[in-house]
Amino acid sequence: MTTPKKGHDPVCGMEVDPKEAAGKSTFQNVTYYFCSQRCKEDFDADPVKYLLKK
């Protein structure tokens, strides 16, 4: 698996560099990167909520 160059925090939408992310979570074999621990915690509590808002 390769690391993407840039990604978007699914909670706040901020652009995140995976190498500098405050956290990461895997849901259904997809890794998501976060700008802050708070965004990661919110996502972990209800990932579907944030993935459906796309």
Low-confidence stretches: none
Helix content: 25-40%
What integer value in Å does the Rg equal?
10 Å
- Strand proportion: 25-35%
What structural class do you assign from the helix and strand content? alpha+beta
E-strand count? 4
Strand order of the largest sheet: 1-2
Question: Which sheet architecture does the biggest sheet show?
Answer: 2 strands, antiparallel
Give the mean pLDDT. Answer: 91
Number of helical regions? 2
Net shape: globular
For the terminal residues, how far apart are their CA atoms?
Answer: 24 Å
Elements, N to C (H/E):
EEEEHH
Q: Could you characterize what this model shows?
A:
With 54 residues, this protein is α+β, with helices and mostly antiparallel strands. It has helices at 37-45, 47-52, and strands at residues 7-8, 15-16, 23-27, 30-34. 28% of the residues lie in helices and 26% in strands. A two-stranded antiparallel ribbon has the order 1-2. A hairpin with a 2-residue loop joins strand 3 (23-27) and strand 4. The model has no long low-confidence stretch (mean pLDDT 91). It has two helices and four strands. The radius of gyration is 10 Å and the shape is globular.
